[in-house]
Amino acid sequence: MIVGSSCIQQATTGAATPRQAVRELCETLGATQNELGIVFVSPRYDREAFAAELHRYLPGTPWVGCTTAGEIAPSGYADDSAVAIVLPSEHFRVVVEPIEDLAHFSTQSGRHVAGTALARLRTRGIAPSPTNTFALLLIDGLSVREEFVVSSISAALGEIPLFGGSAGDALQFRETAVLCNGAFARDRAVLVLIQTDLPFRVFKTQHFIPANQKLVVTGADAERRVVTEINGEIARDEYARLVGVSPEDLSPAVFAKNPVVVRVGGDTFVRSISRANPDGSLTFFCAIEEGVVLSLATGGNLVANLEAAFVEVSRVVGAPELILGCDCILRKLEIDRDGLRDAVGELFHRFHVVGFATYGEQIDSVHVNQTFTGVAIGVKRADGTGPDAA
Q1: Which of residues 253, 281, 299 is at a domain's end?
Q2: Overall pTM > 0.70
């Protein structure tokens, strides 16, 4: 018998103005004692006005969030909207650490941020551990600093699992922003340590399988995520040849259908292309170094893969009260291209998924693409335990 609920309230709105949108969100969320609010906001909204309205309607709730490349609402994917959740104080203790000036972020910065967050959480009365604490990282999706930030913070957090996403701006690639301390800002990240007495599992899933075509990066500017040569040829032209299109026909839809992957240890991680440049180079969503051997990937069944991942985490935490998810914009493009919105929406609704479409995803110490990362949070049993993991 399962009794008691974490009462993680969810809300979504497509209202035209920030004031209307925030009013609708807050009326649905209610004014219970909240430890934290998390909101994902379409870039069509005036960010300053949106942040101000949040403070006006729920002044006692601290908020974090970011701009998006699409929203995951309780009923499925949405556009030009805002979605929000609140974590109740009854079941959650939260510490928020903003990370400003990403351009000058260092390994020492990562150690300091993580160490400060852990120390602050200890003062709340329970020692952070992988069984009671997880980390959420939201970061400026145009900062080109995700790899460095996530790897240094994850190393300092030790075994505490981390997931997150890179803020988007609806494929405009002009400005993305992260919400913390009452305002949205660029060149910012926010680390959120979340401690809970509810069962949870941080996880990732992606549906691509490496094919036989190899791409050796023979020219690259890793800091800018630009690949100039593949297999000794102009990067754009060689990639186009391998996927069977002309260089002029390369587009986000082509990149979504034909990602490349790299093997790290025994796992496979997707490295997606964001755009082809006039000089023949390719800009990636992740850092790519010269000498890396990539493989073209073929897609499996996205819907079946996603359902299997949700079923597996449900086996661990029980029927999820919430899955907070970060899903790559290129997956959203694939979903739209293949007419899968209804099928994916049904899964999101059934498993209580909310979140946003990203410019990249974080899982533990790695920045990835075309991947769903998230945390599944279950409901506490009458005896104070979660479901068995066996």
Answers
A1: 299
A2: yes
